[in-house]
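Working notes for the structural subgroup meeting. M.R. asked for a predicted model of this chain before we commit to crystallization trials. I am recording the input and output together here so anyone reviewing the notebook later can reproduce the run.

Input as submitted:
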Amino acid sequence: MSGKREYGDYQTPVHFAEKVCHYLKDYRHLKPSAIVEPTCGLGNFLKSSFLFNAKEYYGIEINPEYCEICRKSINDERVNIINSDFFTFSSKALIKDKRQILVIGNPPWVTNSTLSALRSDNLPSKINFKGLKGIEAITGASNFDICEYIILQLINEYKDTNTVIAMLCKTSVARNVFKELKRNHIAFSSCDILEFDALKVFGINSSTCVLVIQLSDKPVTTNTCNVYDFESHETIKSQFGYSNNRFYSHLNNDAENFDGLCCFEWRQGVKHDCSKVMELTICNGLLQNGQSETVQIETDIVFPLIKSSMFKAPVIHNFSKFVIVTQKKVREETKHLEYEVPKTWKYLNDNIELFKNRKSSIYHGAPPFSMFGVGGYSYSRYKVGVSGFYKQPLFSVLYSDDEKPVMTDDTCYFISFDDYDMAYVAMLLLNSKKVQVFLKNIAFLDAKRPYTKKVLERIDFGKIVSCLTIDDLAQTEQDLDLTYYVTDSMYDIFKTSLEIGQMRFT
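Returned structure, recorded in token form:
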């Protein structure tokens, strides 16, 4: 039998499958005429769904051994087990009684990039199914859960019917599905998430849920997705969705509305995928790389580096990590380094095999030792940066005492400034209590990276400065244990610069 990782194989325990079916029958009052379990595995949802007493049951499974187990363990003439690849198979065409269809199951919890790395055949055609553009289409944004792909394909197959789709999935997948329902103008009357403890059910640490979508044959929709605890599903735990065509992780009317377009361009840090060579530390006064080798090179293109784990203070100007930056802009030729920094060029060439083994397609056809996330903005004197990973974001002013530009890695985001005071004011505004509450209403804290460029670019500084006073900034200084520094004059200059557009950075 093929490895579980290849199939994203987390078989649903019978007791939990029964619990989900009882919820749909007793609480949602479903009376399906036909039931489909795509990627049915051992068929535990099919068996549990007998309580509905439907006329037709269909289980689709790519693994022939699982199919044989299902056929032997389920002795019911209403059940059809089909050994087929879900990605090339239509289940809707098989159903005779389409009055009320229930599609239920637990699709694979694995990403397309993981399957590709495993050289798996259990993979959908490599299409850009969300219509991503530019660099997003060839980097991490185009990596997706196979589970998400399957659910969206089911929605597309059963749209304009009264089908109910009930799927176990990661909560991040469920949110993406809700967004795609809205983006593609699919008719649905409800979309609910019931969170459950994956550690108890599957023995894994993951934010998971039962996603229940009621599709419709009428032109209806809803802007809200309700979130429940599966163990107490009578009470709404929270809601996310759209308000005034903007997406919110929490529909909380008590928060200040700072939503809009940021006047600063949020940038992601440098990406090189070769940390053992490119990232350096100082040991006994000498540079040392990730292979514990002493590195004797010119320091012209060596810069202070901040990684996500280093955002621990609101002002950072001392550094323990450094990075070699080979370019001033993306895809710039690097041959000139051979003459300008010959020791560095030799060092890079001595490690060229590590660069050649970088897996990301963004390096294909690029000059030797290329990086991404570099541009004129990378060399700004002052930055205000934040880690994309922390649930409680801390925005920090970044600068180096030796006046060298500070670089961040690609897990961080920053905006650029030419003046320290302006950077300091921006840092206080972003760390203020009201802005922090707003950020939590547009970010999902259970996501691997709660704060992304798309979240941060919604921060409207114009709305913030019209709401926050100098007293709010002084209070933020106190909350951050900073010595009093901000003044009325500094704040006025910041606000005036915003008004006349002097601080629009690209």
